[in-house]
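User: Please run a holo structure prediction.
Assistant: Happy to. Please share the sequence and the ligand.
User: Here you go; the ligand is benzoic acid.
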Amino acid sequence: MGLRLGDIAPNFQANTTLGFIDFYAYLGNSWGILFSHPADFTPVCTTELGKTALLQESFASRNIKVMAVSVDDIDSHHNWIKDINETQQATVNFPIIADEKKVVAVLYDMIHPNASETQTVRSLFIIGPDKKIKLIIVYPASTGRNFYEILRVIDSLQLTSNHSVATPADWKQGEDVIVVPAISTEDAIEKFPKGVKVIKPYLRYTPQPD
Ligand code: BEZ
């Protein structure tokens, strides 16, 4: 059975473009993103890794460390990075795992044989500082991921891990949030001094608390 939300993200050691890395040591107390790519020198992957590099400041300001996985070898990765930097006007300086033996790909269930026997799908795991898996998304090879959506989800995960709130559909940083059902309206009024708007007994909004 594959990994599920709330599971501990398995640790591993891997050869990467930044040297041999222990995943947990790399993460330290940060949040983490581990994401797979079908293959080096493929067009969609090139744009995804370029975009991730261009958003480096956005990931760093949220205390997130990024690591990519591809099942090609290290020389191929280094050559591909030159192309990514050139074509995407980016500087890739996060590690890309050379997972030739598919150790990480299998550990994280990134190969879906009915999609491809040999290449990984586009899996992405967000891992909390407690090393638990907070989010899993899986896209097919033909569809590049939206990295602004990933940043938006991280904003929600970080907010909701610190406050008794949830975020509504299409929520963005700074917008009103939802009081979790476990809190009574009476307690919510005390807990959220910016105010509580009751639409239904189960649907209550409050300004973003942080
Ligand atoms: C790509 O990254 O461009 C890609 C990889 C595998 C299949 C289709 C597209």
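The first strand starts at residue 13 and ends at 16.
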